[in-house]
Design brief:
Number of strands: 10
Radius of gyration: 18 Å
Low-confidence stretches: 1-9, 221-233
Helix content: 25-40%
Oligomer: single chain
CATH class: Alpha Beta
CATH topology: Rossmann fold
Mean pLDDT: 83
Number of helices: 6
CATH architecture: 3-Layer(aba) Sandwich
Distance between the termini: 24 Å
CATH superfamily: Nucleoside phosphorylase domain
């Protein structure tokens, strides 16, 4: 606890996104930059490192591992956009990840990763939105038959992306809590590329823009208790 009675944040939070615009307003909060293993790590205020990984699972996993090597030990977070696999989700909707699955892995074992329940609950308190499956694959879902096949495999809200399960796998192996929030930019299937181009600029940063308020109040098991407010005489 600091001298003024405030609780000092312990540990470091890492943020991964695929494309620079997905950092949203965090780009204006960058106070330092350094290069590690060919990636630029962005210091976003106190105790937060962000990295733009590039598109795809390989790059996302490399970025997540680099963040851990750079000192991230409190939480790994994923932000960005996604494609809706169900018609109930529309562009602009925020979707929190309950479980990420590597959909194009040929084996069933060790391909699903559950988001940290505490992170999920506290992020939803700040950002709202749906919660459901994130289906991560090496290529976007650009036809309705593939969308329908994926949607049938997972109950409830589900979206398609290309990075989340990879970051989750790195976090799970390192026993670091993780969570993900994405904004729907398109309906996966016919027309997805046109919709993505139409909505991406406006929606890319929506998920990241929820982070400053949330991280300021972020609490994980083992964090010191928040002191009670002073009593007034």
């Amino acid at each position: 606890m600091d001298a003024d009675g405030s609780v000092r944040r312990e540990g470091m939070v890492g943020v991964v996104c695929a494309l620079e615009r997905e950092l949203g307003g965090l780009r204006e909060r960058v106070v330092g930059r350094r290069s590690v293993a060919g990636l630029e790590l962005l210091e976003v205020g106190d105790g937060v490192l962000a990295v733009v990984s590039g598109v795809g699972k390989v790059r996302a996993a490399a970025a997540a591992a680099t963040l851990l090597a750079a000192g991230v030990d409190r939480a790994l977070l994923v932000v960005g956009v996604c494609g809706a696999l169900r018609r109930g989700l529309v562009p602009g909707d925020l979707v929190h990840c309950t479980r990420a699955v590597q959909a194009d892995l040929a084996v069933v074992e060790d391909r699903e990763f559950e988001a940290d329940a505490n992170l999920l609950a506290s992020w939803r308190e700040v950002a709202g939105g749906e919660a459901g499956w994130f289906v991560t694959a090496d290529r976007p879902v650009l036809n309705p038959w593939r969308r329908a096949r994926l949607a049938r495999a997972f109950l409830g809200p589900c979206v398609a992306d290309m990075e989340t399960a990879a970051v989750a796998a790195v976090a799970a192996r390192a026993e670091i809590p993780w969570a993900a929030l994405r904004c729907v930019s398109d309906h996966a299937g016919f027309g997805a590329q046109r919709a993505f181009r139409r909505h991406f600029v406006a929606l890319a940063g929506q998920a990241a823009d929820t982070l400053p308020k949330w991280i300021d109040g972020l609490r994980l098991p083992g964090s010191p208790p928040t002191p009670p407010p002073p009593r007034t005489p």
